[in-house]
Amino acid sequence: MSLLGKTAPDFTLFNNKKEAVTLSALRGRKVVLAFYPAAFTGVCEKELCTLRDQFAGVEASGAAVLGISVDMPFSNNAFAAKTGATFPLLSDVHREVTRAYGVIWPNFAGIAGLEVANRSVFVIDAGGSVVYEWIAPNPGVEPDYAAVNAVAVS
Predict the structure, then answer these.
(1) Please, which residues have CB within 8 angstroms of residue 39's CB and are 6 or more apart in sequence?
(2) Sheet of strand 89-91: strand arrangement
(3) Are 143 and 50 in contact (CB under 8 A)?
(4) How far, in Å, are 46, 95, 101, 131, 152 from residue 62 at the CA level?
(5) Domain ranges for the chain
(6) Cα(124)–Cα(113) distance, rounded to whole angstroms?
(7) CA 72 to CA 103: how far, in whole Å?
């Protein structure tokens, strides 16, 4: 089910510094939500480094960038340090937000019962509506960073 054109599901999650972050508190500015499957995996590390490097203009425009995974805040904090992420990494350990956005990926890496976030990106406008949605056909596929960047800074 697509969220495009709909109000983004609200949430409160802990970031990598164990601080609560609520999506609705960011109203008035654009928000980029970048879901990633797992800290310390090759494609996720590449994605976070690309977001860090290519999305500096997004943050400079006043938009917020948030990474979301099912990893614990402690893992996300170490992952942020390793990648030099300049934006918060949120922990959806209960998988509620991942489910609300329709991006749960079951049996990750062939491990029965291991549910993670599929790689996906949502851009939410200042009013709280989803204006861009990209969901990978599988977790190994990266988003079109230029397309996300264009929507996020427009």
Answers:
(1) 69, 71, 75, 76, 78, 79, 89
(2) 20-22, 12-15, 89-91, 64-69, 31-35, 120-124, 130-135
(3) no
(4) 24, 28, 23, 17, 10
(5) 12-153
(6) 30
(7) 18
pLDDT in tens, 72-100: 999 999 999 999 898 999 999 999 999 99
Rounded Cα gap, residues 20 and 107, in angstroms:
28
The gap between the terminal CA atoms of the chain, to the nearest Å, is 25
Q: Contact, 52 vs 36, CB < 8 A? A: no
3-state secondary structure of 133: strand
Q: What is the DSSP letter of 129?
A: B
Rounded to 5 degrees, what are φ and ψ at 75? -65, -45
Residues identified as active-site:
44
At residue 91, φ and ψ (nearest 5 deg) are: -105, 115
pTM above 0.85, yes or no: yes
| Superfamily of segment(s) 12-153 | Glutaredoxin (3.40.30.10)
